[in-house]
Amino acid sequence: MNSTSSGPDTRKPSHLFYQSRLRRPLVARAEGIYLWDQSGKRYIDGTSGPMCVNIGYGNPRVNEAIKRQLDQTSFAYRLHFENEAAEELARELTAQMPGDLDRAFFVSGGSEAVESCIKFARQYALATGQDQRRKVISRFPSYHGGTLGALAVTGYEPLTAPFAPMMESMPKIPAPTTYLDRDNLSPEQRGLKYADLLADAIEREGPESVLAFLMEPVGGASTGALVAPDSYYGRVAEICKQYGVLLIYDEVMSGAGRTGRYLAADHWGITPDIVALSKGLGAGYAPLGAMIARTPHVEAVLDAGGFMHGYTYAGNPLACAAGRAVLHELLDHNLMENATLRGEQIQAGLRRLAERFPFIGDVRGKGLLVAFELVSDRATMAVLPKELNAYQRCVDLAHEKGLIIYSRRTRGGIEGDHLLVCPPLIVTAAEVEEILSIIADTLATFAQESGL
Ligand code: PLP
């Protein structure tokens, strides 16, 4: 039927297309952390879709809120009417933000949120007489979205290379992949070393030309939940301040509670200048994203003639009503605390599995944004032979065994296999054990097949 179940595919040819010809099972229903296909097979969603279904599937409160909004009005254009759902979500969402990050601009997804951050930063520079500032430094590896502006700041060659002639690629510095470093530095020193690469890049590019620095505080799929040493975050913020460079946190994946705090920035007490959010904000119930900006910056842009940017569905009432109910669920059920506890349980379980499977390399992450690498040698972190296709094989084996996990054969530009384990924030301790047991089974089959 597809790459992960047996039997011929008897379905009609599809008029839909995505990345490849591969056909996936038709989904029949979903509830909690589970999905069922049309044959009745049950899957645990060990990756919350693409790390977005933060409160699980079929939440009655969110469904009810969407229906209520639908009965009232599904749409009202933001240039003609204000709507209460967007107003209230902006109020409640910015209450979760540190400092004066008090203003929200709603969009429909992560790429739009990142585009909005970049365009807002540029308009702030223009509004304050800093016309030369136009370069956005970002990191390598990284992923910031699929639109051309977001791709220009994405550090992931397979996705950017085909479009390189069509966009101005922005300067990149290495993300702190410190687990690959073989120096004698302490974690703190390593963090500072990587942060100082930002100061070097600003000097190299010409400080007057640098508009912003964009980073994922906890990496997503491109790096496999990369967390920097603590010292990195404060030093980066200091460097940005010193050079008058805006600090943009892409929290599309790490935000909305996934790492155990509403923003991953909260772990390090950082107040970025601009934040991109999406994924867990609508949590799979509605396409929703947001740019959150600081009041003085917003006022400067509005004073200078307005924010020249917008989308038809910006501040959509249905999406905002869903987002509001998602936020209430997250807060009322202490799901961020659960993310911390269950994330620790997953990391501890993976470390136990590493005693049994020597090809498990680094285990890392924060809250329920967790990843582990598959390597041929843990001491050197050397990668597995490409022919093993380890990441895809493990995903397929897990799928057969009823667990959905996420993977990449990449550390950005560097080859390597990693798997992400990021279930919804409602996952229970018993469900985590079930996930770990299927991962153990998957790795045992993979080891046997591959002679590892
Ligand atoms: N930024 C980050 C960190 C992401 O992980 C993603 C998606 O995976 C995006 C931006 C783009 O979001 P979307 O796919 O909703 O456009």
From TrEMBL:
Keyword Cell division: no
GO molecular function list: pyridoxal phosphate binding; transaminase activity
Cofactors demanded by this protein: pyridoxal 5'-phosphate
Source species, domain of life: Bacteria
Keyword list, A-Z: Aminotransferase, Pyridoxal phosphate, Transferase
UniProt cross-references to PROSITE patterns, sorted A to Z: AA_TRANSFER_CLASS_3
Sequence similarity: Belongs to the class-III pyridoxal-phosphate-dependent aminotransferase family.
Name the UniProt record assigns to this protein: Adenosylmethionine-8-amino-7-oxononanoate aminotransferase
Originating species: Limibacillus halophilus
